[in-house]
Sequence to fold (249 residues):
Amino acid sequence: MTALPKPPPTTPGVDRDDAPFDAADSSRPQRAPRPKDAATLILVRRRLGVEHEVLMGQRAKGHVFMPDKWVFPGGRVEREDALAPAHAELSLETEHLLRKEGCRRKPRAFALAAVREVFEETGLVIGRHGGPPGPAPRGWEAYAMLNAAPELDKLAFIARAVTPPYRPRRFDARFFLADAGAVLLDDRPVKGDLELLHTEWFTLEQAFGLDLPNVTRFVLGEVRARLTGERLRPPFLRWTRQGHVMERL
Fold:
């Protein structure tokens, strides 16, 4: 287990969801809320003559959680996500890693939630043609109309992070990485009214220059290391009374 350096102090009331644990904060809840499961998918592509790019979107000013920040597509895991069909399941190794340090859901639920969130937030479809017959789980109706299903074995689990305690909104997020060319049904969005603003592809250098949440910046570093050939076990980030700690799963 490694203790990480504390980030710079934050102004009270600003980016509270991204701030470190502060025992002296009199406005914090009396009890730390239980984190809600969440999942994120980082899409990477490489065009001819261009270094690797990642897909990111900017959260709207009206969002109560990290407004204006640039993030990877992702969101809360829903109960029905575990029921969505797939052409291929997660590898046994990935399932094992997702179960480490406690897991209240089937591992596939996290990967499928990431697929659904990419669709809802960007309009991009993770999957290939040939969706199974029958009714779709709640929340998957629009995706099912495209006659597609994802291949979960193409998603690599690369990180897990828990929002600091005593924040009004807490998430236990799993981050996946995938090659856009291998997992996208099409590289053009299929619907409008998307949840993320200004969705764009950025080189890694450009992405590091954006206004990023702390955890997004850390995970982007993990992406860069993997793309340069490093073999890393997924990090698990969480907060304790002694500060921010990280261990590899």
User: Anything to note?
Assistant: Confidence is low (pLDDT under 50) at residues 1-14. The longest strand covers residues 36-45. The two ends are 10 Å apart (CA to CA). The first helix runs from residue 92 to 99.
